[in-house]
Design a protein that fits this description.
single chain; 311 residues; TIM Barrel; eight-stranded parallel β-barrel; 12% strand; DNA-binding
DNA sequence: GCATGTCAAGTTGTG
DNA sequence: CACAACTTGACATGC
């Protein structure tokens, strides 16, 4: 009952009902305008998004949510080959920088954990030079944002296997070493549901001192012989050895565990899917559920009720 | 307004 | 071989 640990939940990227919106645009639509107009349109979107981020952080603090995952296109098309731009090119650059300063202060005051989860085309294990170059550019962008908001984590999957997992992991290791420190110091690796399990990733993560984000839903979709308790313990030890708080992901299958597609995420979390071995830990758990903030509020409530029923 | 097609990018597995 | 799935639909267009 009176466990010393404290689980904090994390909200992922967007809201379901609360009217806090992030804006986006496309390269195709921007290309119809002059460069000046493009920059002006982008400036407006970036300013809007940073102000939305501030509102989002205010919401999470109000609702006792301890972490927030920031969506990657906070600055849309920042690295697009024909659109790319710099923050200081934007007419609103000064205002945006002030917003970032306020966000950093707010994050620190309220101890909010901030993370990024760059998109699936960021692949550190790819044998293709072009893919690695694109990934590096995209990660530098995430690193820049991470410094501006004081985010701790840039979380990635290990990528493809290409018929030789050992070779792919070896390439991944090499690519990691090439990353600049403001990126590398924030990189985490997450087990996925088709290729890389905790058993695959932990040796590399432990050797390279890269924390591993443990997604228990992926582990259940792609088991590796490790029990949930074993994986949790190894992951917790790794984060602790780096003097950092462990980071987990949770979700529930939309169509049930016996369906053909347990991978698909449900709107809410079934509290039965919350692993007992996480109870009492001090850790962050990102809630990957379609109902977003509503799913977190419900899970917090469900777990509190279970806790009260336990002798 | 509302329905619909489109959007930069990787990799894998399924129907 | 097209498409869905992945952390997340939003936006432009045309009626």
């Amino acid at each position: 009952m009176a466990d010393q640990g404290k689980i904090r939940f994390g909200l992922c990227c967007i809201f379901h009902k609360k009217p806090i919106k992030f804006r986006h645009t496309t390269a195709k639509s921007l290309m119809a305008h002059s460069r000046t107009t493009q920059i002006s349109l982008l400036s407006e979107i970036c300013r809007h998004n940073v102000q939305s981020l501030r509102k989002a952080l205010n919401y999470v603090v109000t609702h006792r949510i301890g972490a927030f995952r920031i969506l990657s296109p906070l600055f849309p098309l920042f690295t697009h080959p024909s659109i790319h731009y710099q923050l200081d090119e934007l007419p609103d650059a000064e205002l945006i920088r002030k917003e970032f300063a306020a966000i950093r202060a707010f994050r620190q005051t309220h101890d909010i954990r901030l993370s990024f989860h760059p998109d699936q085309f960021n692949v550190l294990s790819s044998p293709r030079r072009e893919v690695i170059n694109n990934t590096s550019r995209e990660l530098a962008y995430h690193g820049l944002l991470a410094e501006l908001v004081d985010a701790e984590v840039i979380n990635l999957h290990a990528g493809g296997v290409y018929d030789d997992k050992d070779a792919a992991l070896h390439r991944l290791r090499g690519t990691l070493k090439m990353l600049p420190d403001f990126v590398k110091s924030r990189i985490t690796l997450e087990n996925d549901d088709i290729s890389y399990t905790p058993k695959d990733l932990l040796p590399l993560c432990e050797a390279e001192k890269i924390p591993m984000v443990y997604d228990i839903h992926h582990h259940r979709c792609l088991p590796d012989g490790f029990s949930e308790e074993e994986a949790t313990e190894r992951v917790v030890s790794l984060w602790h050895s780096l003097d950092r708080e462990p980071y987990f992901h949770i979700s529930s299958p939309k169509h049930g565990w016996n369906s053909k597609t347990p991978r698909v995420h449900a709107d809410y979390i079934d509290p039965a899917d919350f692993p007992p071995c996480w109870q009492g830990l001090t850790a962050t758990v990102d809630v990957e559920a379609k109902a977003k903030e509503l799913a977190i509020l419900k899970l917090q409530n469900d777990l509190r009720e279970i806790d009260q029923c336990t002798p």
